[in-house]
Amino acid sequence: MRYWFGEKIRAVRERRALTLREVADKAGVSESLVSQIERNRVSPAIDTLLALADALDLDLEYLFSDYRRNRSVRITRSTQRGTFTRPGVLYERLAQLENPSPGNEGIEAYYITIDPGAKTGGKEYGHPGWELGIVQEGTAELAVGNSTFTLSPGDSASFRADAPHILSNTGNTPLRVFWIITPPKGEIGNGG
C-alpha cells in the first residue's frame, strides 16, 4: 500500500505563502521534486520527507494522521450480550476491552438493572480505577466512601473507585443504569 503526502504538503506550503522554490531551497532538494511530491507523482524517501517537514515546520504526526485509520472495532449485538446476575441485579456486558495497547488500561461497560430494594457494590472495599454511571430509569442512591447521593433519570456520577461504593435502588420500579469501569474488573458486583 502506498501512502501519499502531496496534498498535505501543498496545503501547508500554500497556507504559509511559500513558493515551490523556497521550500525546495530550504529542504535542499530540487523544485521539480517538490512539485512531483505535491502532485503524488513520486513518494519521497524518508530523508526527503524529513527535510520537507523541517522546511515547512510540519509535525510528522500531521503528515501521518491518516495512515492506518482502519482500527479494530468490536460489535456486541443486543442478542449477544454476556449476562450474569447477583440477587436482585442483572448485568448485561456491552463491551470489554482489556489492555488494548500499552499504557491503556482498558474499559468495560454494562447495562445494569437493579430490582427495588436491591444493590450492587460493597461497603468493605473498593478497587483501583474509575467508574462512571448514568441513570436511565428509576431512582438511585449512590454511596461512595462516607458520602451519599440521590440520582434520578438523566443524572450521572463519576468517581475514583478505590473507596467502597454501593449503588442501591431506592424506588418502587426497576433501576436501569449505564455503567462504565476502567480498568476492567470482569464481573462487577462485589465491591464494584
TrEMBL record:
<dbReference type="Pfam" id="PF07883">
    <property type="entry name" value="Cupin_2"/>
</dbReference>
<dbReference type="InterPro" id="IPR010982">
    <property type="entry name" value="Lambda_DNA-bd_dom_sf"/>
</dbReference>
<keyword id="KW-0238">DNA-binding</keyword>
<dbReference type="Pfam" id="PF01381">
    <property type="entry name" value="HTH_3"/>
</dbReference>
<dbReference type="InterPro" id="IPR011051">
    <property type="entry name" value="RmlC_Cupin_sf"/>
</dbReference>
<protein>
    <submittedName>
        <fullName>Helix-turn-helix transcriptional regulator</fullName>
    </submittedName>
</protein>
<dbReference type="GO" id="GO:0005829">
    <property type="term" value="C:cytosol"/>
</dbReference>
<feature type="domain" description="HTH cro/C1-type">
    <location>
        <begin position="9"/>
        <end position="63"/>
    </location>
</feature>
<dbReference type="InterPro" id="IPR013096">
    <property type="entry name" value="Cupin_2"/>
</dbReference>
<dbReference type="InterPro" id="IPR001387">
    <property type="entry name" value="Cro/C1-type_HTH"/>
</dbReference>
<dbReference type="InterPro" id="IPR050807">
    <property type="entry name" value="TransReg_Diox_bact_type"/>
</dbReference>
<dbReference type="InterPro" id="IPR014710">
    <property type="entry name" value="RmlC-like_jellyroll"/>
</dbReference>
<dbReference type="GO" id="GO:0003700">
    <property type="term" value="F:DNA-binding transcription factor activity"/>
</dbReference>
<dbReference type="GO" id="GO:0003677">
    <property type="term" value="F:DNA binding"/>
</dbReference>
